[in-house]
Amino acid sequence: MIKNDRLQVKRTFAIRFATESKRSVFLELMRKNLLTMDVILAKEIIYMLKNEGYRPGDRLPSERFLADYFHVQRPTIRNALAQLVREHYLFSQERLGYFVAPERIKISTHTCTGNFDPGERHPNIRWQLYSFEEILVDKRLSGKMLIPEQTPVYKILFIYYENDTPLCLDYSYTPIDIYPGLTAEILDSRPILNVLQTDLQIPILKSNQRVTLIYTNEEESSLLQTAPGSPMMKYKGLVYDETGRLIHFFEDIMKIDDFAFIRDVEMEETWSN
Is the pTM of the predicted complex or chain greater than 0.90? Predict the structure, then answer.
């Protein structure tokens, strides 16, 4: 590939993916070689797939075709495709090539609630109320929720499914004094935060969120139908109202291959799978 072709790919990438305010940042990263050709080509491949209407399960063109299409050598294309496999945009099958991976559920870390709503983009996903009980906060939970021990809270577990396959365990804890009289029947059709926002008109101001890698215990493995010790994402957070009062604590155990976290909402449609 000649130098002018390489510069043209970089400029095209900057114009296509960066907003006016961010374009200079991308160009500076390219000038300093902090944004590599592998990364650039990976994003270009994503753009091509979206622009050409590729769907999950569709087979990509051959490496030779892609190398000619982007004016790069095959090892460069191979590295970009391998990166997209690692990021779960694609999957590969020996002797058959690369395919578009099933779309993952996107969760924006810019939201305050921590909850996700599959909506129309994932019509096969549903949730089910698995358990609902009133408990007193023990020492472990007190440290997580930053409230005194023996505080009465609701402990709620929703399980999210795609068709009949479990995807996520959503453990929720809400102080009982936030909503005295809450029942399982109320939660049958709506997650707890939706209930608090619509029924009680509680404005949510902020939340502190964290994503970590964990390995499932026997109970989690049984509910998610996986082997004990399977790697999962734990997504947890504290949710506060406008007065600074804690109204909700959540811990979600998620299958890694089914979810994607988005930092920059503005880039979601183009960059994220």
Answer: no
